[in-house]
TrEMBL record:
Protein's name according to its UniProt entry: Insulin-induced gene protein
Annotated GO MF terms: oxysterol binding; protein sequestering activity
Any single Pfam family the record assigns to this protein: INSIG
Primary subcellular site in the record, as a coarse category: endoplasmic reticulum
Native species: Naja naja
Gene name per UniProt: INSIG1
Amino acid sequence: VPQPENHTWSCSCTARGRYKDHLGGSATGLAAKVGEMLTSSVSSSPLTLVGHAARHPSSPNRGSAPGSSSLNLSRDLLQRSLVLFAVGTFLALVLNLLQIQRNVTLFPEEVISTIFSSAWWVPPCCGTAAAVIGLLYPCIDSHLGEPHKFKREWASVMRCIAVFVGINHASAKLDFANNIQLSLTLAALSLGLWWTFDRSRSGLGLGITIAFVATLITQFLVYNGVYQYTSPDFLYIRSWLPCIFFSGGVTVGNIGRQLAM
C-alpha cells in the first residue's frame, strides 16, 4: 500500500513541475516578444526623433537664432520709440499753443514771434519723455507679471487721447471761483480717465510718479525764469498742473502698451 501512494505523489509533483516549467517558458517568451515590439516602436516614433533633434540641433540654427531675435527686439524698440516721440511732440505742440492762446503760459516777447520758435525746446523734451514713458509702462507690466488686458484696442486708445486733450482744454478754458475748485475738478477727471482706460496698479503708480517728477521739473524751470504762469497758486505754477501730467502719463502709457502688443 505505501508504494502506490508514493508513486502517485511523485507523479503528481512531476506533472505539476512540468506544467510550471511550460507556463514559465511561455510567459518568458511572450514577455521577450512584447519587449522587442515596444523597443522597436519607441525607437521609430516621431517623439523620439524630435527629442533626438532637440538634443542634437544643427549648427546654423544654433548660431543664427540669438542674433536674429536680438536684432528684431532692437528694431521693435526703435520703431516704438520713434512713434512715441512723434506723438509726444505733436501733442506738446498742440497743447502748448492752446495754453499760449488762453494766456495761461507766458513766454518772453522775442520767442513768440512765430509758432515754431516759441519755446522750441518744449516739443522735443515732451517727445523724449513720451518715448521713455511709453516704453516704461509695458516693461513695468512684464516685470510685475501683470499684463495689461483692459480695453486693449486702438479705438479705446484714441478715446483716451481725446479725453486727455479735453482735460487740457478744460484747464485753459473753464472759469471757477478759484484755482482750488478747478484743480479738484481736473483731479476727478484725471482719475476718471485712469479708471475708464487703465484700472491697473502699475498705471496708477507710474502716473502719480510722473506727475510728481514733472511738477518738480516745472517748478525748477519757472523758478529760473525760463517761462511763467499767470496767477500761480502752487508756489510758482498752477495747482492743476499735476493733474495734467498724471492724465498725460496714463495716455502715453496706453499708447506704449498698445504698440507693444
